[in-house]
Amino acid sequence: MEDLRRAYLYIKVNNGNDVISFLETYNEFHVNNLQDGYLEINYEKNIGPEIFVKARKIAIEELYQDFTVFICPIKFDFRMKEILEMLPILNPGIFTMDTFIPDIVLLNKTELISKLRDYYYNRFSPETIDTILGFINSNMNASKTAKKLYMHRNTLNYRLDNFISKTEIDVRKFKGAIAMYLLFKR
């Protein structure tokens, strides 16, 4: 199971058997029906979120049913129960961590925000988080950030690359940067 990635899907209708049957037609998906409209989907790591976008589009057009998907980062040992509780509240769509965080911030879910903030502080050093925030506050300019934080640019790039590879939140791009900024804003 190490070579599989996880996604969680929430179907807002009481009987989601049509959606489950539809998803099982995808050879890439291994669907587990959890309960109360939640599904756990395991699939190969090399498959991107586009497959969920395509599946959702077909489900809306053909089955007249919509759903919300949260795609877990590969090495994510956060309590999923708290994230799953958010799926019914979110607008239907496909969420990765960099799109999930802004929505929970906008919904003012302070307890979950605090737990995610603690999760990232515990997973990385406060120094790494400060480096990420320094990079974002310097308009994602590596040269300015390195000067401002008194570090070599290669050290900065190493920290950014390490954070991106472990979290799948690309802080070099707008969505990832805004997610981290909103999560850690002071």
Explain how this protein is built.
Helix 4 packs across helix 9 (174-184), helix 6 crosses helix 9 (174-184) and helix 7 (142-148) packs across helix 8. The model has no long low-confidence stretch (mean pLDDT 92). The radius of gyration is 18 Å and the shape is elongated. It has a five-stranded mixed sheet with strand order 2-3-1-4-5. With 186 residues, it is α+β, with helices and mostly antiparallel strands. The protein has helices spanning 17-24, 50-63, 80-84, 97-106, 110-123, 126-137, 142-148, 153-167, 174-184; strands spanning 4-11, 30-35, 38-44, 67-71, 93-95. The protein is 52% helix and 16% strand.
Features:
about 190 residues, alpha+beta, 5-stranded mixed β-sheet, 9 helices, elongated
Produce a short descriptive summary:
The protein is α+β, with helices and mostly antiparallel strands and 186 residues long. The chain has helices at residues 17-24, 50-63, 80-84, 97-106, 110-123, 126-137, 142-148, 153-167, 174-184; strands at residues 4-11, 30-35, 38-44, 67-71, 93-95. Helices cover 52% and strands 16% of the residues.
Task: Give the arrangement of secondary structure elements.
Layout: E1 4-11, H1 17-24, E2 30-35, E3 38-44, H2 50-63, E4 67-71, H3 80-84, E5 93-95, H4 97-106, H5 110-123, H6 126-137, H7 142-148, H8 153-167, H9 174-184
Parallel strand pairs: 4-5
Antiparallel strand pairs: 1-3, 1-4, 2-3
Helix pairs in contact: 4-9, 6-7, 6-9, 7-8
Percent of residues in helices: 40-55%
Number of beta-strand segments? 5
How many helical stretches?
A: 9
Distance between the termini: 39 Å
State which percent range the strand residues make up.
15-25%
Largest sheet: 5 strands, mixed
- pLDDT average, as an integer? 92
Principal-axis shape equals elongated
Unreliable segments of 5+ consecutive residues = none
Overall SS class: alpha+beta
Side by side, the strands of the main sheet go 2-3-1-4-5
Name the helix and strand elements from N-terminus to C-terminus, one letter apiece.
EHEEHEHEHHHHHH
Radius of gyration: 18 Å
